[in-house]
Design brief:
globular, 2 strands, mainly alpha
C-alpha cells in the first residue's frame, strides 16, 4: 500500500483507524438537516449526499478490511447524543498509548 510506504519513509505508523459507524439513511437525514441550518448547498441535495456516501464506500471504506487484518480498525457507534458519541470515541482512544 502506498500509505505504508509513505509512513515508513517518514518513520511513523498508524496505530488505529477509527470509523464512526452510522447507517446511510441516518447520515442522509443528518446532512439534509445540516443543509437547512447552515445553508451549505452540498447538504441540501439528497442526490449529492448519496453520491458522497457512494464515493466513501468505494474509495475509503475498503481500507477497513486492510486495517482489520492488522487489528487496527475500531468501529465506533456514531448514533446517539453528541456526548454519547464522544464518550464512545474516548473509550476507544484511551486504549492507545500516546507516541
Amino acid at each position: 500500500l502506498s500509505l505504508d510506504k509513505m509512513l515508513s519513509e517518514k518513520e511513523t505508523s498508524i496505530t488505529c483507524m477509527l470509523a464512526l459507524e452510522v447507517e446511510d439513511e441516518e447520515l442522509i437525514r443528518r446532512l439534509l438537516n445540516r443543509g437547512k441550518e447552515s445553508g451549505r448547498a452540498d447538504d441540501k441535495s439528497e442526490a449529492i449526499i448519496r453520491k458522497r456516501i457512494a464515493e466513501y464506500n468505494s474509495k475509503t471504506a475498503p481500507l477497513i478490511d486492510y486495517f482489520k487484518k492488522q487489528n487496527k480498525f475500531r468501529g465506533v457507534r456514531g448514533v446517539g447524543s453528541v456526548d454519547e458519541i464522544f464518550t464512545n470515541l474516548c473509550s476507544v482512544i484511551d486504549h492507545y498509548p500516546v507516541r
